[in-house]
């Protein structure tokens, strides 16, 4: 396991930023956790999932509306993941830890696993963002080459074309492959799990995977036939896959985003490195490796659980996403005061374009 050290040359920046954020919460007498807006959203999203699921069971298999219902289920999966599970896993959904745990565990119902998510996302991705060979979120080679330190293969020059079709299977790959790879290896990329996979966690892993297949494939098949159920399930999974992958990619894989590539460079020279010295302090590193998009859109902010405010999320993951629009102003001002470059793309479509332009550029560079 590579040890990673952040060099704290700009430590005053994060100290000031933290003070300003704390002042904002105390002056306005606010809790950093979620509020009724988030609880309403939870009811709406789970209501949509249950409603569309019931529709699938009740509609005649010949009725093409059944696929619309599956499509809405796919969107609900992504919506619950972004808004409810993600805040719960970070402990920012509620001030009560049992409610956070319950919300984090909604991932077990959606096919994933809350323990593995905490290891992969909270511990590895949030600590070591965009560090090649460490961060699981950019561990995409050979399928995609997201920075020039990784070896270029002949098909990477087409990656901006096959990228989107590839994202359609991202959710299925997560549920049926990547989770099992982590489970059996006990690692996220090169790092062993920080927490112990207890006997209960083992049972939870297998039981929830089986219950998930029963609820979303076998039980509907009893009502609408196996063929329709499987077709609908794949449609749902494709929609979830595209939604989650595009949103994740727009945060860390766009033009002008920073990657730490020491490990990949060492591997190219057949060297092994035991430690990486990141040139920035942790907060500056988060800002250099993360980008916001479309922060003015209230609709996207509502739908994406504030994941269009990834910079604020990466700096303050324990603050609920409902506060990010306000935090955005404070973070931007503090970045300007300390001369730290802040990455924000004005619209969703420009961010999508930037992601695919980045893939195109990296796919063609030597
Ligand atoms: Zn997060």
User: How many domain modules?
Assistant: 1
- The portion of residues forming beta strands comes to under 5%
What sort of overall outline do the alpha carbons produce when their principal axes are compared?
Answer: globular
How is the largest sheet built, in terms of strand order? 1-4
> What structural class should be given to the helix and strand makeup?
mainly alpha
Q: Please identify the oligomeric state.
A: single chain
Which hetero ligands occur in this complex? zinc ion
**Main sheet specs:** 2 strands, parallel
Percent of residues in helices: 55-70%
- What is the residue-averaged pLDDT? 96
Instruction: Encode the helix/strand succession as letters.
Output: EHHHHHHHHEEHHHEHEHHHEH
> How far apart, in Å, are the first and last alpha carbons?
29 Å
Short characterization:
With 366 residues, this protein is mainly α. Helix content is 62%, strand content 4%. Zinc ion binds next to α6.
Please describe what this structure looks like.
This protein is mainly alpha-helical. It has one domain. It has 16 helices and six strands. The strands form three sheets. Strands 1-4 form a two-stranded parallel sheet. Strands 2-3 form a two-stranded antiparallel ribbon. The chain has a two-stranded parallel ribbon with strand order 5-6. The longest helix is centred in the middle third of the chain and has 27 residues. It is globular and about 65 Å long. The chain starts with a strand and ends with a helix. The mean pLDDT is 96. Bound molecules: zinc ion. The site of zinc ion has 6 residues, from helix 6. Zinc ion binds next to helix 6.
């Amino acid at each position: 396991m590579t040890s990673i050290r952040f060099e704290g040359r700009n430590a005053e920046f994060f100290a000031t930023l933290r003070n300003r954020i704390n002042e904002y919460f105390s002056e306005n007498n606010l809790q950093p956790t979620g509020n009724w807006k988030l609880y309403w959203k939870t009811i709406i999203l789970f209501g949509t999932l249950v409603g569309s699921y019931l529709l699938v069971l009740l509609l005649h298999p010949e009725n093409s509306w059944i696929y619309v219902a599956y499509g809405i289920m796919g969107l609900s999966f992504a919506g619950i993941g972004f808004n409810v599970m993600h805040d719960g896993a970070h402990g920012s959904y509620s001030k009560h830890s049992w409610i956070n745990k319950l919300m984090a565990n909604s991932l077990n119902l959606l096919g994933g696993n809350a323990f593995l998510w905490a290891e992969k996302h909270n511990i590895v991705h949030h600590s070591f963002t965009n560090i090649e060979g460490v961060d699981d979120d950019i561990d995409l080679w050979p399928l995609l080459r997201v920075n020039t330190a990784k070896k270029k293969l002949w098909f990477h020059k087409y990656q901006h074309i096959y990228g989107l079709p590839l994202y359609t299977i991202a959710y299925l790959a997560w549920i049926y492959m990547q989770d099992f790879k982590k489970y059996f290896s006990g690692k996220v990329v090169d790092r062993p799990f920080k927490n112990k996979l207890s006997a209960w966690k083992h049972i939870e892993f297998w039981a929830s995977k089986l219950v998930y297949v029963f609820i979303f494939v076998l039980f509907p098949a009893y009502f609408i036939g196996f063929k329709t159920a499987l077709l609908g399930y794949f449609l749902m999974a494709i929609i979830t896959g595209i939604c989650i992958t595009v949103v994740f990619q727009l945060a860390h894989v766009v033009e002008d985003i920073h990657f730490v590539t020491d490990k990949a460079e060492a591997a190219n020279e057949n060297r092994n490195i035991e430690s990486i010295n990141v040139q920035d302090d942790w907060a500056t590193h988060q800002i250099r490796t993360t980008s916001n998009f479309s922060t003015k859109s209230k609709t996207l902010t509502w739908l994406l659980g504030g994941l269009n405010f990834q910079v604020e999320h990466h700096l303050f993951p324990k603050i609920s996403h409902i506060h990010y629009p306000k935090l955005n102003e404070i973070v931007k001002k503090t970045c300007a005061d300390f001369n730290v470059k802040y990455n924000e793309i004005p619209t969703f479509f420009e961010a999508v374009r930037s992601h695919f332009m980045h893939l195109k550029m990296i796919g063609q560079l030597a």
